[in-house]
Amino acid sequence: EHEKIAIGTHKLRVTETARFAKRVQKKTPLGEN
Questions:
Q1: In 3D, which of 2, 26, 30, 31 has the Cα closest to residue 10?
Q2: Which of 24, 21, 18 lies closest to 32 in space, CA to CA?
Q3: For residue 28, what is the DSSP state?
Q4: With a threshold of 0.85, does the pTM exceed it?
Q5: What are phi and psi for residue 31, nearest 5 degrees?
Q6: CA 24, CA 13: separation in Å to the nearest integer?
Q7: How far is CA 32 from CA 15, 19, 22, 24, 29, in A?
Q8: What does each C-alpha distance from 19 to 9, 15, 24, 26, 28 come to in angstroms?
Q9: What kind and span of H or E run contains 29?
Q10: Strand, coil or helix: what is 30?
Q11: pLDDT on residue 32
Q12: How distant is the alpha carbon of residue 5 from its chain centre?
């Protein structure tokens, strides 16, 4: 039971990280590094 919760939390974190990365990519123009 505890493992299920941990997996769910991990998936949620990965999804949030991916969303955040996409948002950052949109904000940052591509030739600016």
A1: 2
A2: 24
A3: S
A4: no
A5: -95, 20
A6: 16
A7: 26, 21, 16, 13, 6
A8: 15, 6, 9, 11, 14
A9: none
A10: coil
A11: 58
A12: 18
Q: How confident is the chain (33 residues) per 10-residue block, as mean pLDDT?
A: 90 95 81 57
Token readout for 1 is 């039971």
- Show the tokens assigned to 22: 């996409």
Domain spans of the chain, in order of start:
1-33
5, amino acid identity:
I
- Total H helices, total E strands in the chain: 1, 0
Query: Hey, what are 14's tokens?
Result: 């990965």
